[in-house]
Design brief:
Keywords: ATP-binding, Nucleotide-binding, Transport. The protein is an alpha/beta fold. Helices cover 32% and strands 31% of the residues. It starts with a strand and ends with a helix.
Length: 298
């Protein structure tokens, strides 16, 4: 089932084009990464998906239903963790969760909040004003999950958090996906996308650059070679590396180049020479992301 579908979605703020001609499709049970730098249009897209901002043009469908008009029924099926958490600081974490539960017509004890708080090491008895940024993010995530939404939308969920808290949040998100939840994950932290997401959409200046599986982005046929020969000669021409790679960088005796294809033919040529060190790696998501952005600037 398609959970999120947008067709030629655009949003103008005055004369500024925030989102332009954006078409996305997110399937049930998927963790979908939505990546781009600050100002790329990620938060504006999320506001439109949440029916908090009206598109200038285009169409949105949620759970197979038209979402052109605000719908309380659709919103109840969605959980949302904003990039900036604003909470009533005089309450304890428990009081804040109880208020959220009542808003959804739930009894707090029927939810999984205790297990989630324990997993995140969150003390719900303390007042929110004493919470660190990390603890506020933890509480916000638990609040967004109270009503067991079918779709969870997260806007920069780990920004400003230390690595330990980031790992705990991501572990909890993985559990939700295993239970059947669909996650739409907006971030500019590419390592999180690589660990968590199934597919990723790259956005730049409000326009979609590329949609690809994470496995294809970080894998595929591209390989990065770093070779140190027994001598310091530049063997680029001798090896015929221009047949495989667009550019070879030779620095401090190390040849570095990237090929789009199987590594076998290159390894055969390298085998003719005495090699002191050799590494063959797949590009990281960050390298793929930066390559697409540079191509988009041309």
């Amino acid at each position: 089932m398609t959970i999120i579908y947008t067709e030629a979605l655009s949003k103008m703020y005055g004369n500024k084009q925030a989102v332009s001609d954006l078409s996305l499709e997110v399937q049930s049970g998927e963790i979908y990464g939505f990546i781009g730098p600050n100002g790329a249009g990620k938060s504006t897209t999320i506001r439109m998906l949440l029916q908090l901002a009206k598109p200038t043009s285009g169409r949105i469908s949620l759970f197979g239903r038209d979402a052109g008009r605000p719908s309380a029924e659709l919103r109840r099926r969605i959980g949302y963790l904003p990039s900036e958490i604003r909470l009533y600081e005089r309450w304890t974490g428990m009081e804040s969760l109880a208020f959220t539960a009542r808003a959804y017509g739930l009894k707090l004890d029927t939810t999984d909040y205790r297990q989630q708080a324990a997993m995140l090491n969150l003390d719900l008895g303390k007042r929110i004003k004493s919470y660190s940024l990390g603890n506020r993010k933890k509480l916000g995530l638990i609040q967004s999950l109270l009503h067991s939404p079918e779709l969870l939308i997260l806007d920069e969920p780990t920004s400003g958090l230390d690595p330990l808290i980031q790992h705990k949040l991501i572990d909890l998100l993985k559990q939700q996906r295993e239970a059947g939840m669909t996650l739409f994950f907006s971030t500019h932290v590419l390592s999180e996308v690589e660990r968590l997401c199934d597919r990723v959409a790259m956005i730049r200046d409000g326009r979609l650059l590329r949609v690809e599986s994470v496995a294809a982005l970080v894998g595929g046929k591209r390989h990065v070679f770093r070779v140190r020969f027994a001598d310091d000669q530049d063997r680029t021409d001798e090896l015929g590396l221009h047949d495989f790679a667009a550019e070879t960088i030779v620095k401090d005796g190390i040849h570095q180049f990237t090929i789009d294809g199987p590594p076998g033919p290159v390894l055969q040529r390298l085998g003719r020479y005495e090699i002191l060190d050799l590494t063959v790696e797949r590009p990281t998501l960050e390298e793929s992301f930066m390559r697409d952005y540079k191509e988009g600037e041309k």
